[in-house]
């Protein structure tokens, strides 16, 4: 009985340490949304992300900058028809981080 | 989020690029291309004259559709390059109508050369089968179930027109049926576009 109790405690401790190891950069709803919508395409522009995620320009820009700084996404700024155009793409590192996050969450939630 | 969820998201993203009514507009223009020459020919115009009269109308409508896509829809939806898997599916979609038309031409040639078979093929079969195959393939490759319905409607227009011609004895019944369906599709396209414009606004940078 005590052995079972100890096993249960160990599992809970493991799960807690797993939660502590969750990539917080991905875990934020806004950034998770950005990564999700970038993971289903090869590349997309800022307007695409704005529509799909429902974020505001400011919020999108701030979160994109954080993901770019972490090397999770690649941002290309260019001018098209004299208008600024921002193209975003998930990097290999970003894809791995996103998949890692998905696997961890699945394991934690026991899906 | 597992792979099936991501596939759902990808499908939703992909289909969102077809919600402005372009498929309906193209279907309407295609039916106009069938209906207008049929109407003109019944008023004594020859095949070439009918085609020459129809072509500018279709061209103008196609130009309008492309301009709306370029200057109204794309700035609101943004630009996306889909994953290679989706692009492969799209390239397969282009192959199906080409193969269908080639197969139709070959089968048509064989049947029309043979007097005993001519009545089977020359009638309504190609007008029913080709839209059903092409729209069916589009529905499958574009993951859009409404295209099965469009295929069935477009496939039924010609036999329905022929049938109505026997009920309502008028030389204009067949072209009128095709043109009515064309305008219904163009109407649906406009409703889709208006709904799209109300939902999406051009973002201010």
Helical proportion of chain A, percent range: 55-70%
Instruction: Please provide the ordered H/E string of secondary-structure elements of chain B.
Output: HHHEHHHHH
Q: Work out the number of β strands of chain A.
A: 3
The secondary-structure element order of chain A is: HHHEHHEEH
Poorly predicted runs of chain A: none
Give a short account of the largest sheet of chain B: none
Round the mean pLDDT of chain A to the nearest integer and report it.
Answer: 86
Structural class of chain A: alpha+beta
> What structural class results from the helix and strand content of chain B?
mainly alpha
User: Biggest sheet of chain A: strands side by side, in what order?
Assistant: 1-3-2
Percent strand of chain A equals: 15-25%
Query: What coarse outline of chain B follows from CA principal-axis ratios?
Result: globular
Residue fraction in strands of chain B: under 5%
Count interface residues per chain for the largest interface: A-B, 24 and 21 residues
So what's the overall shape of chain A? elongated
Write up this protein:
The complex is a heterodimer of chains A (111) and B (205). By secondary structure, chain A is an alpha+beta fold. In chain A, 66% of the residues lie in helices and 19% in strands. Chain A has six helices and three strands; from the N terminus they run αααβααββα. In chain A, strands 1-3-2 form a three-stranded antiparallel beta sheet. Chain A is elongated, with a radius of gyration of 18 Å. The mean pLDDT of chain A is 86. Chain B is mostly helical and 205 residues long. In chain B, helix 6 runs antiparallel to helix 7. Chain B is globular, with a radius of gyration of 20 Å. Chain B starts with a helix and ends in a 6-residue tail after the last helix. The interface between A and B is medium-sized, with 24 and 21 residues. Strand 1 of chain A pairs antiparallel with strand 1 of chain B, so a sheet runs across the interface.
């Amino acid at each position: 009985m005590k052995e079972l109790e100890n096993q249960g405690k160990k599992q809970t401790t493991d799960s807690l340490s797993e939660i502590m190891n969750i990539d917080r950069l991905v875990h934020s709803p806004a950034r998770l949304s950005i990564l999700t919508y970038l993971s289903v395409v090869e590349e997309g522009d800022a307007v695409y992300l704005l529509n799909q995620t429902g974020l505001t320009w400011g919020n999108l820009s701030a979160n994109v900058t954080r993901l770019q700084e972490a090397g999770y996404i690649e941002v290309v700024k260019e001018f098209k028809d004299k208008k600024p155009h921002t193209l975003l793409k998930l990097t290999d590192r970003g894809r791995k981080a996103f998949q890692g996050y998905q696997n961890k969450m699945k394991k934690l939630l026991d899906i | 989020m597992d792979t099936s969820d991501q596939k759902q998201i990808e499908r939703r993203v992909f289909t969102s690029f077809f919600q402005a009514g372009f498929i309906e507009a193209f279907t309407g223009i295609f039916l106009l291309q069938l209906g207008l020459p049929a109407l003109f020919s019944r008023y004594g115009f020859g095949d070439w004259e009918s085609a020459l009269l129809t072509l500018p109308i279709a061209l103008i409508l196609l130009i309008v559709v492309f301009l709306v896509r370029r200057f109204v829809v794309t700035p609101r939806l943004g630009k996306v390059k889909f994953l290679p898997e989706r692009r492969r599916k799209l390239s397969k979609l282009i192959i199906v109508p080409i193969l269908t038309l080639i197969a139709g031409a070959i089968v048509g040639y064989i049947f029309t050369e043979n007097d005993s078979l001519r009545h089977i093929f020359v009638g309504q079969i190609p007008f029913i089968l080709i839209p059903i195959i092409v729209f069916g393939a589009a529905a499958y490759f574009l993951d859009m179930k409404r295209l099965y319905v469009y295929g069935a409607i477009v496939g039924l227009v010609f036999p329905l027109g022929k049938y109505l011609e026997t009920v309502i004895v008028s030389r204009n019944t067949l072209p009128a049926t095709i043109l009515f369906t064309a305008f219904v599709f163009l109407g649906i396209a406009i409703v889709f576009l208006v709904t799209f414009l109300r939902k999406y606004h051009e973002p201010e940078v």
